[in-house]
Amino acid sequence: MKVIGITGGVGSGKTKILTFLKENYKCEIIVSDELAKDLCKSGRACFKPLVNLLGRDVLSLNGEIENGKMASKIFADKNLLEKVNAIIHPAVRVFIEDRIETLRKENTLDYLFIEAALLIECGYKEIVDEMWYIYTNIDVRRKRLKESRGYSDAKIDSILKSQLSEEEYRKNSDFEIDNSGLCEDSFEQIRERLGENS
User: Fold this and answer.
1) CA distances from 89 to 9, 151, 187 (A)
2) In the predicted model, is pLDDT for residue 6 greater than 60?
3) Which of 74, 167, 169, 155 is nearest to 117 (CA)?
4) Ordered alpha helix ranges (H), the chain
């Protein structure tokens, strides 16, 4: 089983790529943002440490951490963001490393794809076999973010500033998919890289 990291800036269209991979290859996909949310639920690895850090007033009536309440606490105290990340990021990594080990033992899949915007920054290069960069030109990304998420130019600018440059993504990746045009063009690039549907 090959472990492939998939990264790229906001609005690069990673979700469409992941859907194609899921439908056409014998694989499992881990989306780090979804995994992080899952690990913050009651009984999971991040729940108690986060409640201890942020206080019980971040809990909703059903006893789960409420994202809005957590976000407003972090917004009010910038130091909290680092502390929250120091709880969530390592827990995500431990889960992923354990999952890789389990899937390799089971030996039933051809690929495990791990998607995260911060794969490179969080040092995932050392645990994946290949890193893929989903490149999309900036005008297309802006258009997508305005249409799909209703983001303003100012919001897009601030997000772009906080992400790696194209050069950094390229330098740290083994394969680049140009996702600026038609979906089918992107899928063809993947087929060439992986061979026809496994």
Assistant:
1) 18, 26, 30
2) yes
3) 169
4) 14-24, 32-39, 47-54, 67-76, 78-106, 138-149, 153-162, 166-171, 183-194
Tokens of 132: 């893929």
Map out the domains of the chain with their CATH numbers. 1-26+110-198 (3.40.50.300), 35-108 (no CATH)
Distance CA 117, CA 32 (A): 8
- Degrees, nearest 5: CA angle 81-87-88: 85
Residue located via tokens 């997000």: 159
Per-residue pLDDT at 198 exceeds 80: no
Take residue 89 and report the two structure tokens written for it: 């990021």
Q: Say whether 52 sits in a helix, a strand or coil.
A: helix
What pLDDT score was predicted for residue 163? 83
Please give the backbone phi and psi of residue 185, each rounded to the nearest 5 degrees, phi first: -65, -40
Percentage of the residues of the chain whose pLDDT score is greater than 90: 69
Walk across the sheet containing 2-7 and list its strands: 27-31, 111-115, 2-7, 130-135, 175-178
Q: What's the confidence (pLDDT) of residue 158?
A: 86
Contacts of 167 (CB under 8 A, 6+ apart): none
The answer to whether 165 and 133 have CB atoms below 8 angstroms apart is no
Read off the pLDDT of each residue in 80-98 and give the average, rounded to a whole number: 94
